[in-house]
Amino acid sequence: MDIGALRGTQALRNNVLKWMGFCLGVLAGVFAVFNLFINDFVVLGALEVVFASFCFYIFFYTRKRNAQLWQSLTLCLFLSLLITLGTYLSSIKSLLFIWTCSLPVLFYLLLGKQYGQVLSLMVALLQALILFSKSSLEPLNSVNFLLNFSFTYICIWAVSHTFENSRAEYGQRLENLALLDPLTGAGNRLAMTHYFEVELKNKNGLFILMLDLDYFKNINDQYGHDVGDRILIEVTSFFRQRISKGYVFRIGGEEFAIFLPSSDPRSAYEFADMLREHLSTTIHNIDEQVINLTISIGVACYMPNQTLKNFIKRADDALYQAKQQGRNKVVTAYELSQESIEHNKAS
């Protein structure tokens, strides 16, 4: 599965923002001409010129890069300001207030549920104050207009909220299916790649622990795969309970990986040895069977510009040495490099 497929929401919002920027930029430019030279609304026209410029900036920016939250938020707030100010300055027969009904859709598409709720409520209150403050709503019938306009806005708001809520829920389910190991709930290989390449912005001080349950095949052979599966679930929980910062991934069979961000060689080694020691003294009672486990661990530190594949390989090599040395041990990639240097010197 392509990692880019996991960023569907970001891609959708980026695309919406790009084309909304273009369309709103054109419309704002047209309205600016009318308000500056025909309607004599100088302040509103000047704001529309600024808004049009910002919209075109957004359009060209999002053609090559992902949009930032502040850009979407600024566009929504600026558009809300223009619509509410225009409603306040113009007569009701200009029908500028109709644009208000488009705002909840835009809020939820660009900013999500939380911002959508707040901004939709804010605009509703502002427009209500403006409309009620007008001396006359002619040529519209006051009661009919206010009721129909209010119900239309509320319906569009409700539909936008329901759609975004459902989209976010199903999007999260799909992401869980793609990123989580179905047995243990730990991240899978794709989740590890996604975390390393997308989420982790600063890799300085990043350590990886490759862990392998010793003689796990014997547990499956002796007690059955159901017991083996429950052991894997308990071990995953064991790792999670002892990680204050970091992530657990199951990358196949009885092999796990743990990322430790913002750590140092001594802390990473001590943490790995703590896991090894605590697990070796933990008794697992499953179906009246008393089972004891040990693990072998390889530890590696991230090197600048290193690929994930090479990063994992260095930890895997250390893990292999831990097994070769009798299992239930922690070996670091640093130890291997030192041994290699000493061996080369001796040769």
UniProtKB/TrEMBL annotation:
<dbReference type="Pfam" id="PF00990">
    <property type="entry name" value="GGDEF"/>
</dbReference>
<dbReference type="GO" id="GO:1902201">
    <property type="term" value="P:negative regulation of bacterial-type flagellum-dependent cell motility"/>
</dbReference>
<feature type="domain" description="GGDEF">
    <location>
        <begin position="204"/>
        <end position="335"/>
    </location>
</feature>
<dbReference type="InterPro" id="IPR029787">
    <property type="entry name" value="Nucleotide_cyclase"/>
</dbReference>
<dbReference type="GO" id="GO:0043709">
    <property type="term" value="P:cell adhesion involved in single-species biofilm formation"/>
</dbReference>
<dbReference type="InterPro" id="IPR043128">
    <property type="entry name" value="Rev_trsase/Diguanyl_cyclase"/>
</dbReference>
<dbReference type="InterPro" id="IPR050469">
    <property type="entry name" value="Diguanylate_Cyclase"/>
</dbReference>
<keyword id="KW-0472">Membrane</keyword>
<feature type="transmembrane region" description="Helical">
    <location>
        <begin position="95"/>
        <end position="111"/>
    </location>
</feature>
<dbReference type="InterPro" id="IPR048435">
    <property type="entry name" value="MASE6"/>
</dbReference>
<keyword id="KW-0812">Transmembrane</keyword>
<dbReference type="GO" id="GO:0005886">
    <property type="term" value="C:plasma membrane"/>
</dbReference>
<dbReference type="InterPro" id="IPR000160">
    <property type="entry name" value="GGDEF_dom"/>
</dbReference>
<feature type="transmembrane region" description="Helical">
    <location>
        <begin position="69"/>
        <end position="89"/>
    </location>
</feature>
<keyword id="KW-1133">Transmembrane helix</keyword>
<feature type="transmembrane region" description="Helical">
    <location>
        <begin position="44"/>
        <end position="62"/>
    </location>
</feature>
<feature type="transmembrane region" description="Helical">
    <location>
        <begin position="16"/>
        <end position="38"/>
    </location>
</feature>
<dbReference type="GO" id="GO:0052621">
    <property type="term" value="F:diguanylate cyclase activity"/>
</dbReference>
<dbReference type="Pfam" id="PF20966">
    <property type="entry name" value="MASE6"/>
</dbReference>
<protein>
    <recommendedName>
        <fullName>diguanylate cyclase</fullName>
        <ecNumber>2.7.7.65</ecNumber>
    </recommendedName>
</protein>
